[in-house]
Design a protein that fits this description.
about 300 residues; 11 helices; about 75% helix; globular
Length: about 300
């Protein structure tokens, strides 16, 4: 059996991780709300529209199951953005981001094992995933001797876990949808073309769900955070980053045998995001946070070279 993560997959995921951490930095600085991500998703759709136009006949080859999966993945994307916005409004990037990114490693591995998707992770990969999750748990603890459960029981952590659940959902669904598309005889286009067209509809689906969430919030009188100045420009820049980062992940999925490995290695963005929070946003730095990043990196290495 060949390696679960090829060199091509690893390079794609490294580039994606850097872009992902950067657009999250932009989002954090703008005190984001679901409306922020509506603009970002709309820009992502615009970025991907040329691919759809150039291959406009491809959508007609999508099966009913693929369209249903697109509706579902958009919902989980909207949950992810809503949770991420809440986490960034109420906590530090160097804590909320790693928590939101580390939890799906375990969630996806468990779900894919239960539903029998892909090959079961081997011992080394499981250890690596566990280290990634452990590192995420260590990050919020300022002093290990004073560790307590309430370090995790606050709004930022709750929203981060909601975002993690969204990531878990759309990662598994996207993997299933891409498997169907790769096995569709009528689709003779390259992996990149199929991925970009699929990514367009995924972003469109997320945009629709986010718009519905915002409208329902307004109907119920839920107050919406005031956007920061020039937030539209930042949201547009974030949208370009979202488009680029996840399109690379979707492409990487077409080269991998098990989506849980993809989700695990994507967490390279965790130490990058934490470092950006500490250095650029001047967030507190303490030994446990640095130790958590080191533990995560060790886990990533195990997943990549197993």
């Amino acid at each position: 059996m060949g390696p679960e993560l090829t060199l091509t997959t690893i390079v794609l995921l490294i580039i994606s991780a850097i872009i992902h951490a950067l657009w999250n930095l932009i989002g954090k600085r703008e005190n984001p709300s679901p409306s922020f991500f509506i603009t970002a998703s709309a820009v992502s759709c615009l970025c991907l529209a040329p691919a759809l136009f150039a291959h406009r006949g491809m959508a007609g080859q999508f099966s009913e199951n693929v369209w249903l999966l697109l509706a579902a993945t958009g919902f989980f994307q909207a949950i992810y953005y809503t949770g991420l916005a809440g986490a960034y409004r109420s906590g530090h990037l160097s804590i909320a981001y790693p928590l939101a990114r580390s939890a799906p490693v375990i969630m996806v591995a468990i779900v894919t094992l239960l539903i029998g998707t892909g090959h079961p992770p081997n011992t080394q990969a499981v250890i690596g995933m566990a280290l990634i999750a452990l590192g995420g748990l260590v990050l919020p603890v300022e002093r290990p001797r004073d560790w307590k459960l309430k370090d995790y029981i606050h709004a930022s952590s709750l929203f981060a876990l909601i975002a993690a659940a969204g990531t878990t959902g759309y990662s598994i669904i996207d993997d299933s949808a891409l498997r169907i598309l790769r096995s569709t005889p009528a689709l003779h286009s390259s992996r990149i073309t199929v991925t970009l067209v699929y990514a367009f509809f995924e972003n469109a689906s997320a945009l629709a769900w986010l718009t519905l969430i915002v409208l329902l919030g307004r109907i119920k009188g839920v107050p919406s955070p005031k956007p920061a100045k020039n937030s539209s420009g930042s949201a547009a820049l974030a949208g370009i980053g979202i488009c680029a980062a996840y399109a690379l992940v979707l492409l990487a999925m077409t080269f991998a045998k098990n989506v849980s490995y993809i989700v695990a290695f994507r967490q390279l963005s965790i130490p990058i995001g934490a470092i950006l929070g500490i250095t650029i946003l001047r967030e507190p730095r303490y030994p446990a946070k640095l130790a958590g990043m080191a533990i995560m990196f060790a886990g990533l290495v195990l997943v990549a070279i197993h």
